[in-house]
């Protein structure tokens, strides 16, 4: 959803096909449609592709919406001739009108997934920076190899995309290093960081560029879209500069000189269960979480402190 949105913002006519029975992309973009005008009805209900494609409030981005009906399509497709190529026929009917077509697939391997892979020219493999993702990569590569051999479809691997990345966690750094070292295909330079804004945006039915355009997740997806369409070359210095913007909480914040000296504490002091003394016993006391500021040991003597989050 976010990648296709940024491609549209960069001037590319883009179509996003929601081909997941959980239809998260449809909900996240807030697109309204009739109950009988979804990708399911285009594949099995006799609807023409242009009858189900809807415009979004992002110029240049269209959506083929989905509903939970896709879950039932798995059973209906069994008796359909050439059932593996239903989505490919849909794509072939509209691909001349778009620069990019993205197909959002679910995480499980089933007939819907095979339809999506046979309709695509390239596949992007999102990889969470967690241990089990390493084993999942091998299964995905094996599936793609079977599709090439048994169905004679020359699908390419566009690359692996590292997601849920936190450079402050040792595990994230180790998994990212292992994937870049051992993955036999391209790995995108940009990692998608953990971001609260990315998790909140779908609840407001907005892509990240409209909900929090300056958040770390938004900046990452913008850079990913630029890398995907080849708009700018990537160098080590550019990537380093990008991550300085992506992780502003690691940078020092200049403050005006204050007459009150800042406490010199080595670490955060978190106090749970600090109650107001004047609250009657019959009223449940509120829970207050206090996080005290502390001096940055590398900048002792300067008027700088590490930023403090409020929860």
CATH class of the largest domain: Alpha Beta
| Fraction in helix | 25-40%
Structural class: alpha/beta
| Number of helices in the DSSP assignment | 13
Q: Let me know the CATH homologous superfamily of the largest domain.
A: P-loop containing nucleotide triphosphate hydrolases
Q: Mind summarizing the main beta sheet?
A: 4 strands, mixed
Please name the CATH topology of the largest domain.
Rossmann fold
Written description of the protein model:
With 311 residues, this protein is of the alpha/beta class. The chain folds into two domains: 2-250, Rossmann fold; 252-311, no CATH class. 38% of the residues lie in helices and 15% in strands. It has 13 helices and ten strands. The protein has helices at 2-9, 24-29, 39-44, 49-52, 69-76, 86-94, 111-119, 131-150, 170-182, 196-200, 208-211, 216-229, 236-246, and strands spanning 14-19, 54-55, 61-64, 100-105, 122-128, 156-163, 253-254, 270-274, 288-291, 304-305. Strands 2-3-1-4 form a four-stranded mixed sheet. Strands 5-6 form a two-stranded parallel sheet. Strands 7-10 form a two-stranded antiparallel sheet. Strand 5, helix 8 (131-150) and strand 6 form a beta-alpha-beta unit. Helix 1 (2-9) packs across helix 12 (216-229) and helix 6 (86-94) runs parallel beside helix 7. The longest helix is centred in the middle third of the chain and has 20 residues, at 131-150. The protein is globular and about 50 Å long. The relative contact order is 0.11. The model is unreliable at 246-281, 285-297 and 299-311 (pLDDT under 50).
């Amino acid at each position: 959803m976010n990648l296709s949105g940024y491609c549209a913002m960069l001037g590319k006519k883009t179509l996003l096909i929601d081909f997941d029975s959980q239809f998260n992309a449809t909900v996240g973009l807030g697109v309204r449609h009739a109950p009988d005008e979804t990708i399911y009805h285009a594949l099995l209900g006799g609807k023409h592709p242009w009858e189900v494609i809807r415009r979004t409030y992002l110029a240049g981005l269209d959506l083929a919406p989905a509903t939970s009906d896709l879950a039932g399509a798995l059973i209906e497709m069994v008796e359909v001739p050439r059932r593996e190529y239903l989505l490919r026929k849909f794509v072939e009917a509209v691909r001349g009108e778009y620069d990019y077509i993205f197909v959002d697939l679910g995480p499980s391997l089933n007939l819907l997934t095979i339809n999506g892979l046979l309709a695509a020219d390239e596949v992007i493999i999102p990889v969470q920076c967690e241990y089990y993702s390493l084993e999942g990569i091998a299964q995905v590569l094996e599936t793609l190899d079977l599709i090439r051999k048994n169905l004679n479809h020359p699908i390419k691997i566009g690359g692996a995309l590292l997601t849920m990345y936190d450079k402050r966690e040792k595990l994230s750094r180790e998994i990212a290093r292992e994937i870049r070292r051992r993955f036999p295909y391209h790995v995108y330079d940009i990692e998608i960081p953990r971001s609260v804004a990315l998790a909140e945006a779908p609840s407001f039915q907005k892509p990240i560029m409209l909900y929090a355009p300056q958040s770390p997740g938004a900046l990452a997806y913008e850079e990913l879209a630029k890398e995907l369409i080849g708009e700018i070359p990537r160098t080590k210095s550019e990537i380093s500069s990008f991550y300085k913007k992506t992780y502003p909480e690691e940078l020092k914040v200049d403050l005006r000189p204050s007459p009150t000296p800042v406490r010199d504490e080595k670490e955060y002091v978190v106090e749970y269960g600090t109650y107001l003394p004047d609250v009657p016993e019959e009223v449940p006391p509120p829970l207050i979480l206090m996080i005290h500021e502390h001096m940055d040991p590398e900048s002792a003597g300067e008027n700088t402190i590490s930023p403090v989050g409020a929860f």
